[in-house]
Amino acid sequence: MAWGQGARRPIVGLLFRSQQQAAQGYSSVTSQTHMLTSHAPKGAMLRRGFSSEVPASEQINLIKQLRIRTSAPFKDVKASLASCNWDIEAAQKDLRKRGVVLAAKKSSRTAAEGLLAIAQDEKRAAIVELNCETDFVARNDVFQHLASSLAKMALSTQTPGEMVFPFGPEYLENMSINLDHPKFNGEATVQSAVTEVAAMVGENVKFRRGLILSTSGHGVVSSYLHTCPQPGLGRMAGLLTLEVEDSNAPIDALKRVGSSIAMHIVAAKPLFLSKELVPAAALENERDVLRTQAESSGKPQMAIEKMVEGRLRKYFEEAVLLEQKYVVNDSTNIKTVLNDLSKNIGSKVTIANFVRMEVGEGIQRLEGADGS
């Protein structure tokens, strides 16, 4: 019993001291917490409180609103809102910053899809090619708006007097463009606008090239766009200038026939306007190929030469616009169509220039790329 009574005293003492230390520790923590909160900005406390109390329905609504504003992917929108305590204005700024960085990272990826955009008036037409990585993005409203705006901007520039004026991205990229669209923030350079769209859609976007076609005489500029999601946009385009000698001749017929020939250009893919404009080197190369093919038949030399000339006429019908069979009526050719038009309006009509463009032509596509 004596042992038991003596052992209780240190145990009680230990319990008492531990209770005192716990109480002191609690009051110390409380006082530190009070000091921290008393010096913290009120806005920060409110934001922390708000972020933890935003109901799920409100979060979904904010995500929807920000996606409408920016066209950014769902996961990026949600991440920005969460990191900005569900402040939609701050999240929108955060998305733009993230997007510019991501756009720079994606700039080396192949962009061979996209759209052609045309803007024109009575005497000139401008066409531009805006590329992206997938046809899904080419259907995006923001992407299409940028393509159309670039074409209109190109049409408004003063060209150096050339009837056919091709240009690269450097011709426009430092000019200011005001994109009248709710998802753009006012005026920016063309280069910045392209980067901003790349950030919105999450793909590499490139302004690749453009061309301005003009007519100097009495005539019209005609165009046709194939695979057209909306007016002025498409994946393949044909443009030409039709000119008439008599300055008093009506041009309504020229517009009608010009549109039809522009469609023909897209379908028939001519390389040259006339036989006289086929480069000598291209003609000689084709002649050599045809001669080699004919010699394999084992026929006499005289017969081989006749075969070569016959096949060369076929080459002209395939590659030269004026010699091609008219796609609207294959019983005639383009040269005859122009002759008939000249008779109808009482003055000679000629094609001064033509252009055919297609999205992604000449771009090497990486098959099976993972897109990272």
From TrEMBL:
Any one GO CC term of the record:
mitochondrion
Xref: Gene3D superfamilies: 1.10.286.20, DNA helicase RuvA subunit, C-terminal domain (1.10.8.10), Elongation factor Ts, dimerisation domain (3.30.479.20)
Q: Per the UniProt entry, what is one GO biological process?
A: mitochondrial translational elongation
Superkingdom assignment: Eukaryota
Q: Which GO terms describe its molecular function?
A: translation elongation factor activity
Q: Where in the cell is it found?
A: Mitochondrion
> SUPFAM superfamilies, alphabetically?
Elongation factor Ts (EF-Ts), dimerisation domain, UBA-like
What residue stretches are annotated with the Translation elongation factor EFTs/EF1B dimerisation domain? 125-361
What NCBIfam families does the entry give? tsf
The UniProt entry's sequence similarity note says:
Belongs to the EF-Ts family.
The protein's name:
Elongation factor Ts, mitochondrial
UniProt source species = Brachypodium distachyon (Purple false brome)
Which lineage?
Eukaryota, Viridiplantae, Streptophyta, Embryophyta, Tracheophyta
